Q: What sequence folds into this?
């Protein structure tokens, strides 16, 4: 339905600030500018990143890109309420999908990011207390005020997407999926994306850093298999693993968590790679440790 709004891998900003690389304004500026110059135009946020600080830190640099705003896609999420010094009023980690919360969270994201609109707002997690009519009311109000352009969900199972679609169409579902987390290939999430023209985005597309745990036997099997394929496809191990995601027929868009521009660029370039079906299954087998039935 709306894949045309995002035509590149997405730069995930969760690890750019307090939860990772601790970029200063200059580093944000240089990363944003490097991404744009290389055709990477979508940036993924959530209100909570960096304990509610990353959007504002990014925004301090992003305001100088105002002239290019129409060539950029800004994604944010709401609905998780975290504990901590930046939200002392919260007494328990919880979800909030009330109309008031969705609207006020989106408006605060706009303020922090120094932009007038979000290209896409996602409900971050399915809330056991959510009602689709209430979510639809909030989204429609934000849309008619020009504050958001598209709407989607994140981490929703098929029946939860169906529930929301009782009241409003879902255009995107941002899911955890990678060579080391393959549940969405088998639990109906990606099938539903194909069926309903929902655009799937993959968070932790490299398993949140598959290279960081050398004790993990699954990771090691996958890395070993991917390494065998690097020469054939003239790429790196991570290139093979991102190409594996691109090969899925639901047309997954990876949300890369790297803080390094060259790695973002690699994620864009490997879109050209066409993994053979046999190599795709060799990687799946390496991940699961068994051949398919
Ligand atoms: N919707 C949700 O619930 C949800 C949940 C979690 C995350 N997210 C989104 O998804 C994004 C990505 O998540 P993630 O950070 O866990 O994903 P990831 O891309 O699987 O992992 C990123 C980590 O892998 C490291 N890495 C090592 N070698 C790499 C290579 N060759 N290429 C790229 N990265 C390499 C990166 O380090 P370097 O920085 O040194 O490259 C970084 O620490 C987040 O930024 C956020 O926007 C969404």
A:
């Amino acid at each position: 339905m709306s894949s045309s709004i995002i035509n590149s891998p997405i730069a995930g900003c969760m690890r750019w600030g307090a939860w990772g690389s601790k970029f200063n304004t200059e580093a944000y500026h240089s990363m944003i500018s490097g991404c744009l110059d290389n055709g990477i135009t979508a940036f993924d946020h959530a209100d909570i990143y960096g304990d509610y600080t990353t959007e504002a830190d990014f925004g301090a640099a992003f305001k100088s890109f105002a002239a290019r705003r129409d060539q950029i896609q800004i994604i944010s999420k709401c609905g998780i309420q975290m504990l901590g010094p930046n939200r002392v009023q919260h007494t328990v980690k919880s979800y909030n999908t009330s109309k008031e919360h969705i609207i006020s969270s989106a408006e605060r994201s706009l303020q922090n990011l120094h932009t007038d609109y979000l290209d896409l707002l996602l409900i971050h997690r399915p809330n056991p207390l959510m009602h689709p009519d209430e979510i639809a009311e909030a989204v429609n109000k934000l849309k008619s005020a020009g504050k958001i352009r598209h709407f989607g969900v994140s981490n929703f199972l098929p029946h939860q997407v169906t529930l929301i679609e009782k009241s409003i169409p879902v255009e995107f579902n941002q899911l955890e999926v990678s060579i080391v987390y393959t549940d969405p290939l088998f639990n109906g999430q990606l099938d539903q994306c194909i069926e309903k023209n929902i655009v799937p985005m993959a968070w932790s597309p490299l398993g949140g850093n598959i290279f960081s745990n050398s004790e993990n036997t699954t990771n090691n099997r996958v890395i070993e298999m991917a390494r065998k394929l690097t020469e054939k496809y003239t790429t790196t191990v991570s290139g093979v693993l991102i190409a594996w995601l691109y090969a899925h027929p639901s047309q997954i868009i990876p949300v890369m968590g790297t803080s390094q521009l060259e790695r973002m660029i690699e994620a864009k370039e490997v879109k050209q790679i066409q993994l053979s079906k046999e190599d795709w299954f060799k990687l799946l087998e390496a991940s699961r440790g068994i051949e398919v039935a």
In short: The chain has a mean pLDDT of 97.
